[in-house]
């Protein structure tokens, strides 16, 4: 790929996340999967206190971590405290594609995070997720 080990490893890890979401969502369009992943990560990030948002970013592969922080303005925290606003943010990230079920996307991406992040660390993020959104995390 790039010939730089850290970059290549990170790109490979990001591709694996997209591959896993492709299987979970049943979509074939990798660009759409990418948009769904980034939109959900941004919506989640903007619903977490700064410390927990940064904490979550530490567990993302380097390539995804850069995308996670892209466009982040810390004062936006709590702007999406309702489930509807959270799901709307995901739809916006997917260009309002009428074939997208934003709740399914959110649950699938959050399940992927739950699979990739150690349980004790994930629990720290879950407990500060707004109550209206906690039902989107896997049980």
UniProtKB/TrEMBL annotation:
InterPro entries: DUF2267, DUF2267_sf. Pfam families: DUF2267. It comes from freshwater sediment metagenome. Gene3D superfamilies: Uncharacterized conserved protein DUF2267. This is DUF2267 domain-containing protein.
């Amino acid at each position: 790929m790039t010939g730089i080990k850290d970059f290549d490893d990170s790109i490979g890890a990001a591709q694996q996340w997209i591959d896993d979401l492709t299987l979970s969502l049943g979509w074939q369009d990798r660009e759409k999967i990418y948009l769904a992943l980034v939109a959900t990560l941004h919506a989640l990030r903007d619903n977490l206190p700064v410390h927990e948002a940064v904490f979550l970013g530490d567990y993302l592969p380097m390539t995804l971590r850069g995308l996670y922080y892209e466009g982040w303005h810390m004062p936006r925290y709590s702007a999406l405290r309702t489930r509807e606003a959270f799901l709307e943010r995901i739809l916006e990230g997917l260009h309002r594609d009428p074939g997208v079920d934003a709740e399914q996307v959110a649950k699938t991406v959050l399940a992927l995070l739950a699979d990739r992040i150690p349980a004790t660390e994930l629990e720290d993020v879950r407990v500060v997720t707004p109550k209206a959104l906690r039902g989107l995390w896997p049980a």
